[in-house]
Specification:
Four Helix Bundle (Hemerythrin (Met), subunit A); alpha/beta; Ribosomal Protein L15, Chain: K, domain 2; four-stranded mixed beta sheet; DNA-binding; CRISPR-assoc_Cas1
Length: about 325
């Protein structure tokens, strides 16, 4: 279970082994710590008791604080859940070896395959219902497949030799994918193409907020697996930039954020903004709920069904094992 705190004036307290949410204008709620995985705080005006924070750390419940654009800016978690050092040493060493190239290539391969899978999912019933969108999807799929073949042909001794080429392939894939997405979205959204921070159109604002929630979840997953979230391969290092989070998340954007967001927008829901152009608390709550609900859904890996949240954990552990030279790092592709 994932708890979202979006109401101003909320007080998070501890009662026995349960978190208690108090608000002067709402009925008090209680949630058992054993049922929680994360707490996401999206408001700037709430209070968390030290006892509640300590209890969350004890139960392994990560507390993420995200801003009005969905970007995570702080995190509470136990330092003892990430006490291993062997994985971090292997991660740093891999940067200068072909293993680092493979991790970067994996990020793009996972992105391309999951984008294709999502387009197939949305195209399943559109051949008759929406021929224009269906045709756009059919044009995009061969392009994504061709880019993966081009990706596989790239070879290098370390990631610094290939980064620009790989990022170029990733960028061209984005043009193909988002061009097809534009055909799927309702015309009233006036989707201008994919835009990051600073976007003011409804689709990109919703996507950006959803990605911020996913970044926070992924940072916790990587740290728990013993990995350093700020030491990536495909994305370059920069102070404050969680480059491994950005690498790893490429394989989960489409399945965990694009799918629920595009579904919401396709059903007629629209985000609301305040007088400053920021998403309202109600809108942030709706996006967070959609993404968290999607992370709670199940998919098949190795013949068994797992929640998407747990699949991320499995993939992080496989990445850690690959960097230590203890196993493969297969691509996860969401079902369609």
């Amino acid at each position: 279970m994932n708890l979202v705190i979006s109401e101003r004036g909320t007080f998070l307290a501890l009662r026995s082994e349960r978190l208690q949410l108090r608000h002067p204008q709402q009925e008090t709620q209680e949630v058992a710590l054993r049922d929680l995985e994360t707490v996401t705080v999206t408001t700037t005006a709430c209070t968390l008791s030290a006892e509640a924070i300590r209890a969350c750390a004890k139960f392994g419940v990560q507390i993420d604080l995200v801003d009005g654009l969905g970007a995570p800016y702080a995190k509470f978690s136990s330092p003892y859940l990430v006490g291993t050092v062997s994985t971090r040493r292997a991660q740093m060493q891999a940067y200068l070896t072909p293993a680092g190239v493979e991790v970067a290539r994996h990020a793009i391969r996972a992105r391309l395959r999951n984008q294709a899978s999502l387009l197939k999912y949305f195209g399943k019933y559109r051949k008759e219902a929406d021929p224009t969108a269906y045709a756009a999807i059919q044009r995009a799929l061969p392009g994504l497949t061709a880019l993966e073949a081009e990706l596989d042909a790239q070879q290098g001794a370390c990631i610094d030799d290939l980064r620009d080429v790989l990022l170029g392939i990733e960028g061209r894939g984005g043009v193909v994918y988002w061009g097809a997405v534009a055909a799927l979205l309702p015309a009233d959204l006036a989707f201008p193409g994919r835009l990051g921070r600073g976007a003011s159109d409804p689709a990109n604002m919703t996507l950006n907020y959803g990605y911020g929630i996913l970044y926070a979840r992924v940072a916790g997953v990587l740290a728990t697996a013993g990995l350093e979230p700020f030491a990536g391969f495909l994305h370059t290092d920069r102070p404050g930039k969680p480059s491994l989070v950005l690498d790893f998340v490429e394989g989960f954007r489409a399945a965990c954020v694009d799918r629920p967001v595009l579904a919401l927008l396709g059903r007629g829901w629209r985000p609301e903004t305040d007088e400053h152009g920021k998403l309202t608390p109600e809108t942030r709550q709706r996006i967070a709920t959609a993404v968290n609900d999607r992370l709670d859904t199940r998919d098949v890996v190795g013949g068994k069904r797992f929640r998407l949240q747990n699949i991320m954990v499995m993939q992080a552990r496989r990445l850690a094992g690959f960097l230590r030279g203890e196993g493969d790092y297969p691509v996860y592709v969401a079902s369609w």
